[in-house]
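User: Here's a structure from my thesis project, written as structure tokens. My advisor, Dr. K., wants to see whether a designed sequence matches the one we expressed. Can you design one independently, without my sequence as a hint?
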């Protein structure tokens, strides 16, 4: 497929495979198995499968392969492996390459389930993990050692939207030969060029912006052909975390509108953040596009738009935050993100409930913090709804 196509063209066309019927829409090959013409052909395929040759849906499937080829083209990596969820992607990227005795450095501000893998799971298998404040390059420099096999980070952290300088961290990691694995969900495949900045492996929860309509769980690991097919694929196909063909079909359709949706949502996020900043009832408005954001310059230098997520800190703590949330009419109280429907989340009592009070405080997850995933509704309506909610606190 054409390498020089722009992202919108790739999102619509790249990776499509047509059957003998020449169908326009991508087909769902809802099959777990594939019949061989002969025993000899079956034997040959188990030795080596060609591009259009499949064995079993846990190993690969034509609809899933379309999704993998399309996301790899958009991300700018040689290949990709589609997974059953975003967490299967994070877990697969790490566990497929690590073994007992290895060392990993990770930023501390992570999605709760990512933290569970890095804090609990890896340690049980003898992998040592050092946590750093991802925004402090001196901490990365001090933590990365000659035996460090990988560094892991969320490029924009959940829920406080701290940005990490991928380029600078990659320089530190590569100097010691460590692989740079980036969870790029908040930055989205359309706003971020993580690979150009030095990321070796980029993982997404496709559940979020890629689906974009809150329907299916999915994930993907993007990287070099060598890493994806020699390291990730054997691990994933034998441990059972592959994406289903139906999910791949949902994601392929989601991708066709991904750029348009993300840009419309980011535009509204910017309008809402600017309009709310300075409201006397808020202690803070956090959005990488605002000048008040500590990494505003980094956001502008590295993202083509500052994202679809913002956070507000309501004065008056949990009670005030709950009164506001309970007064919202358009925004849904839920915990997905990147959906066409706008979503408000109270991290301290939901997504990050598990964390001890001190850890919440250290991560900036205050009792009044509300995370906002801006959807596709009219920005004025969304703003009015938030203001009506604030009137109740
Ligand atoms: C949602 C999310 C995940 C996990 O994805 P699932 O599809 O829910 O498994 C991982 N990392 C980040 C940053 C996320 O937002």
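Assistant: Designed independently from the structure alone:
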């Amino acid at each position: 497929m054409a390498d020089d196509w722009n992202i919108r063209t790739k999102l619509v066309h790249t990776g499509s495979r047509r059957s003998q019927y020449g169908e326009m829409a991508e087909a769902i090959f809802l099959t777990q198995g594939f019949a061989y013409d002969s025993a000899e052909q079956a034997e040959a395929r188990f030795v080596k499968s060609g591009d259009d040759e499949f064995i079993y849906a846990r190993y690969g499937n034509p609809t899933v392969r379309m999704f993998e080829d399309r996301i790899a083209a958009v991300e700018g990596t040689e290949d990709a492996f589609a997974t059953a969820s975003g967490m299967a992607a994070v877990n697969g990227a790490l566990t497929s390459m690590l073994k007992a005795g290895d060392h990993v450095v990770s930023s501390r501000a992570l999605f709760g389930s990512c933290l569970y893998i890095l804090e609990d799971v890896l340690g049980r298998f003898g992998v040592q993990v050092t946590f750093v404040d991802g925004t402090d390059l001196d901490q990365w420099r001090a933590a990365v050692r000659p035996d460090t096999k990988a560094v892991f980070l969320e490029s924009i952290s959940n829920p406080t939207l701290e940005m990490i300088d991928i380029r600078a961290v990659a320089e530190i990691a590569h100097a010691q030969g460590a692989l740079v694995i980036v969870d790029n969900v908040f930055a989205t495949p359309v706003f971020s060029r993580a690979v150009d900045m030095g990321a070796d492996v980029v993982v997404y929860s496709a559940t979020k912006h890629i689906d974009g309509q809150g329907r299916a769980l999915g994930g993907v690991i993007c990287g070099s052909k060598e890493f994806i097919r020699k390291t990730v694929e054997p691990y994933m196909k034998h441990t059972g975390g592959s994406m289903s063909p139906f999910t791949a079909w949902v994601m392929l359709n989601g991708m066709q509108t991904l750029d348009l949706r993300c840009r419309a949502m980011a535009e509204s996020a910017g309008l809402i953040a600017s309009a709310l900043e300075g409201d006397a009832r808020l202690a803070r408005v956090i959005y990488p596009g605002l000048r008040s954001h500590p990494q505003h310059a980094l956001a502008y230098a590295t993202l083509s738009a500052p994202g679809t997520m913002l956070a507000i800190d309501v004065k008056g703590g949990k009670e005030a935050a709950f009164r506001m949330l309970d007064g919202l009419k358009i925004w849904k109280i839920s915990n997905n993100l990147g959906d066409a429907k706008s979503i408000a989340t109270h991290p301290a009592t939901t997504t990050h409930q598990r964390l001890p009070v001190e850890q919440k405080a250290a991560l900036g997850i205050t009792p009044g913090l509300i995370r906002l995933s801006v959807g596709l509704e009219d920005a004025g309506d969304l703003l009015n709804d938030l203001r009506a909610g604030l009137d109740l606190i």
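When you compare it with your expressed construct, this may help: The chain has a mean pLDDT of 96.
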